[in-house]
Amino acid sequence: MIELQGVTRLFGSTRAVDHVSFMVPRGSVFGYIGPNGAGKTTSMRILATLELPTEGDAFIEGLSSVNDPDRVRRRLGFMPDAFGSYSDTNCAEYLDFFARSNGLVGRERTRRIRWVMDFTGLRSMAEKPITGLSKGMRQRLCLGRALIHDPSVLILDEPAAGLDPRARIELRQIIRSLAADGKTILISSHILSELAEMCDRVGIIEQGRLLANDTVAGLKGNSQTHLDLIVVIDGETETAKTILSQWEDVSDVVELNRTLQFRVAGDRQRQIEILHRLCDARVNVLEYRVVDESLEDLFLKVTAGKVQ
Amino acid sequence: MTDPNASLRAGGDGDLDPSAGQPLPTVAELSLGGGGQAIPYPALALDPDASGFWGWVDRATERLTSLLNPILVKEARQSLKSKQFLITFFCLLAASCAWTIMGIVFNAPDVYYIPTGESMMIGYFLILSVSMFAFVPLVAFRSLAAELDEGTYEMLAITRLSAWRIVSGKMNSAVLQMLIYFSAIVPCLAFCYLLRGIGLLTIILVVAIIFITAMVLTALALVLSTLAKGRTLQTFLLVALVAFIVVVEFTCCGFVFSMVLPEQWSGTWFGFLASFTVAASFVVLFVAAAAARIAPVTENRSTRLRVILFFQQAIWVVTIAYAAWVTGDFEWINEGLLYLGIFWLLVGMFMCGEASELSPRVRRGLPATYGTRMLFTWWMPGPGTGFMFVVATGVAGLVVLAGVGVFGIQTGVVRSTSVDTPPPVFAAMMMGYLLGYLGIIRLLSMPFLKRFGPSFVAPLIAAIVAYFLGVIVPAIIDVAIQGRVSFKYSALHASNWGWTWDEAFSSQGLPAEVAMLILVVGSGVLAINLISLFREFRLRKIAVPLRVKQDLADESENQLVESGSGR
User: Fold this and answer.
1) Residue B39 sits at the chain A interface (C-beta within 8 Å)
2) If you average pLDDT over residues B121-134, what whole number do you get?
3) What are the two backbone dihedrals, phi and then psi, of residue A32, each rounded to the nearest 5 degrees?
4) Is B20 part of a structural domain of the chain?
5) Which of A193, B178, B467, B541 could form a cystine bridge with B366, CB 3.0-4.6 A?
6) Which residues in chain B (167-206) have CB-CB distances under 8 A to chain A?
7) In a mutagenesis test of the B interface, which of A3, A79, A97 is the best target, namely the one with the most B β-carbons within 10 Å?
8) CB contact, 8 Å: A96 with chain B?
9) What is the DSSP letter of B548?
10) What are the pLDDT digits (tens) for A180-230?
11) Which residue has the higher pLDDT, B283 or A126?
12) How far apart, in whole angstroms, are the C-alpha atoms of residue A61 and residue A2?
């Protein structure tokens, strides 16, 4: 479990994090979204015991990262956004070093190194020097390092950065599987579509303040004041346009290749009524659907003008 | 622990992964990019499973390396593979061979019947000292600076390794490198001994001097590397370190060539032992300082350093008392007082730049009762407590050393041979400077520290300004009153520390009234400082949170269970 309780972090007069509170239950994935400098990394560093909050407290598995940092570190795997490498060190030596640093000895250490190598697909790279690895491979190694001591909580700062599309899909599956294995995961990413598909909940932070904390579906529900609809018509579209123009709450009608896109300032009931009317007027509707809001849209909507 | 063989179904229902629409693969089944199952594991991922004697050796070695500091293991692997190490080692071997051949050729045929060990030792000393003084500290500097620059330190900080273990691991690996370099030159030293003209104890002493000096330089390099934030400062510090190494190399050469190799030193083995102990205490101090610099903000960065400083003072007092007893000259006491005062002024300057915020974890460890607070608050982190620690410990050290001098004079063991400033007068002067200058440094730097946060830069600048003004102000007053700078020392020049010290070591000695004046002014500055110190002294211990208590109880219970099952 991860918990932030009213965490504030000041750097001089700048509020990097401003009374942020949220909780991530065990075995779930929490996506942390925000523009650069919003306070994501600072919050993550506070959880990882690398920063002290000016106010509030952060908890990992119920242990305070302020009061009890040693025990917090044993339960924590942290993958920072920047990967620092060692010269004259290969992947196997790197993992062995971090296994030793996390107190793993004997068979347990070798067993964990084998598991991480298989898990991150680095077995074939075991003897390769780290400095020669591609960005994607380094990300894998960094993830492997965070997992080497089998932590119950993972904090991943931009883990998908630099991964190819295939590796991203696999990473998504891996994160879901780790969560299903009981690990609690806090993940930040700029690739919001990735987060939408792997996170149970999403937190949106801007200028240090947490603006939203909900499921992706919940965020859509809360922020939705209108529907964007698409109608694909077999035949001419004039009748449909005429019908749509009769509705006061329909606006922004755009036509493209027998496809009409328009905005309805109403709820689902209004969406149904429009379809009924079109069908009654014998318009040949081939397709009728709501344009799904992406996480990017939600992010822009939530952050727009909320923090001044 | 996740069992890699366990078949853990990820939730079992496909709706967890909307993109797939199918049950998730197990953690064990998944891999990023295929996994390369047909490729064998590297040796580091395999358990030693050979049978017989070599299998036993394998397993024993594995157990042994598990006990070692992981940083030492990593650094040793890195160093032994690095080009820099290979080149240095090869150059050292080549230079040793070349010097041996040259020595034999130039000394032939005398080498068969004239002792030439001493002259050969000069070359071996130079070869070994250059490798150890130049390369090992610079490698240590770069190693820790790179750790901090490239963000790898933060990854280490969240493992079980403490800052102390990280820095001591770097130090250990430097010592390992020194041993490897030394091993290359051991046959040459044996050859040197066989050539006669140099004793075995002298060879051991020379090697010990090289080792301890290289260790002090390496530890200093580690501290400097933690100060270097940004490339510019890093380069500046690196240049300063190289310059210092050059000075140390020449000083060491001078000492070894003029005193040690001709066996003309007047000291005793105890004297050397005391000197090595003082040097070793600086190694520990520098390593602890480097660890304190990089320790996470949640840690207590100060108490360990203060304990080391306290013991350093004790070692210093004993060493100086011994030297005064052996030589019968109380100039040793006065020199001891001088360096002790300078030492505390320097340390105090750094302590004034400490962070005043204490993490809850540190506050849990604060002394709780009135009595313990009286005695131990000064050992806790903070600029104010640091100031009081330096003042109290420094004054105590000066008083004890002056007391030793007085005792020596009264019992006739110690008598003056060259200077005429009695140790109590010298101690009063040094106390006054310590209280006065350190107090002024603190007062000058406080507004900047409040504005820009904890830093050593503000106290350093304040110190430079204070020491400069201390020298220049009496000269300005001289010019204002007399129209020229006076060359006759008087009470007016009491703030000029350089002149005062010179006067104290001169044959006429420092007038007692000047020393008293310095002490009175210093006490006044201390009184002003005490007013602003009250806030820090009100620091209260906080209770251990219930969650921490529960976890500690759980942990000790687990340990009991484990030790029970182990039996």
Assistant:
1) yes
2) 92
3) -115, 115
4) no
5) B541
6) none
7) A97
8) yes
9) H
10) 888 999 998 766 777 777 888 889 888 889 988 888 777 766 656 677 888
11) B283
12) 6
Which of A16-25, B79-88, B463-472, B512-521 shows the lowest mean pLDDT across its residues?
B79-88
Helices (H), B328-369: 331-351, 360-364
Residues B427 and B406 in one domain: yes
Q: What distance, in Å, lies between the first and last C-alpha atoms of chain B?
A: 23
Higher pLDDT, B304 or B361: B304
Lowest mean pLDDT among B94-98, B177-181, B242-246, B530-534: B530-534
**Pairing state of beta strands A153-157 and A76-79?**
parallel
Please name the residue ranges forming H helices in B150-162.
152-157
Domain that holds residue B422: 268-567
Tokens of A140: 């894998």
Residues B308 and B220 reside in one and the same domain: no
State how far residue B68 is from chain A, nearest Cα, in angstroms: 9
Interchain CB distance below 8 Å, A197 and B17: yes
Neighbours of A293 (CB within 10 A): 17
| Tokens of residue A251, six digits | 């606006």
Note the pLDDT of residue B566: 40
Residue-averaged pLDDT of chain A: 84
Count how many pairs of residues, chain A against chain B, have C-beta atoms within 8 Å: 218
- The verdict on B199 and B142 lying in the same domain is yes
CATH fold for the domain made of A225-292: Alpha-Beta Plaits (3.30.70)
A115 touches chain B (CB under 8 A): yes
Are B277 and B206 contained in the same domain?
no
Question: B538 φ, ψ to 5°?
Answer: -85, 0
**Is residue B202 located within the same domain as residue B298?**
no
Q: Does B364 touch chain A (CB under 8 A)?
A: yes
Q: Which of B265, B284, B303 is the last residue of a domain?
A: B265
On chain B, the residues whose CB falls within 8 A of the CB of A145 are 155
Query: What share of chain B has pLDDT > 90, as a percent?
Result: 41
Same-domain check for residues B309 and B250: no
Domain ranges of chain A: 2-221, 225-292
The number of folded domains in chain B is 2
CATH of domain A2-221: 3.40.50.300
Provide the pLDDT for residue B17. 38
- In the predicted structure, residue A29 carries a pLDDT above the cut 90: yes
Q: Are residues B275 and B288 in the same domain?
A: yes
User: Within a domain: residue B16?
Assistant: no
- Per the document, the length of chain B is 567
